[in-house]
Amino acid sequence: APRPEDFLYGEDEFLLQGVTWPGAALSRFDRALLGGWQDRMARGLFRYRLGELPTRVLPGSMRLVAQLNIQRGTERRRPQAVHSLTQPFDPREFNFTQIRPEELLLRLRRCPPDGGSPAAPDHVLAVINVSPLERGHVLLLPEPALGLPQALTPQLLRFGLEALLLSAHPGFRVGFNSLGASASVNHLHLHGFYLGHPLLVESAPAEPLCPERGLSLLQEVPAPALLFYTAGAGLEALAQDVCRATARLAALGLAYNVFATRGAPPE
User: Rounded to an integer, what distance in angstroms lies between the CA atom of residue 22 and that of residue 217?
Assistant: First the structure.
């Protein structure tokens, strides 16, 4: 039977067009996520109260967005030591089996197509990040009891991409930090958050590498980056392609970040 926190969705709710700056009315997903997040903030479940953050768009062609969030630096849990990009999950360290039940906001559950049986896995958990970077900052988790290390999987990434398409806010972004690239907990998770500013990566030029797979090399950005683009179709295949690339990077000993956002087609 459905539980109160269950958020069932189907592909018919994906917003593939019309989500542009400065944004418009929030979607059902946005209202559920932000409403739950603000409720937990009012109940004091975070490590600090997040107010309006001092924010500047820095001068220059990169248009970098800088924010001052002092409490994130002073109040967050100390990151775990990283000895290898492929180190296994350690149940003796802090992990997401230890989160409080009230930190759970939503159980994002994908409706099976045509009324069939749910595929496994058919859901992820959206829980508050108790040391938030921004408004609506959540973690997207597969079932914590699985004890998966922080190595990106196609299944989790697909849920993250679907969350992006469920949001009507152009500033809702999803990200992944590998071990050695700012991951503070070696337990599989994505970040999701709202940032009310357009970013360079949404419109930066790109050099085609494998157009039939939506793969390009981003140009004129602060760091080397591969761009995987889709207009909304083939999310499962795209997630598999991204994870093949990240697995190769990890095998080479290269830490990496994945950042998912709405943006213009590569040119």
Answer: 27
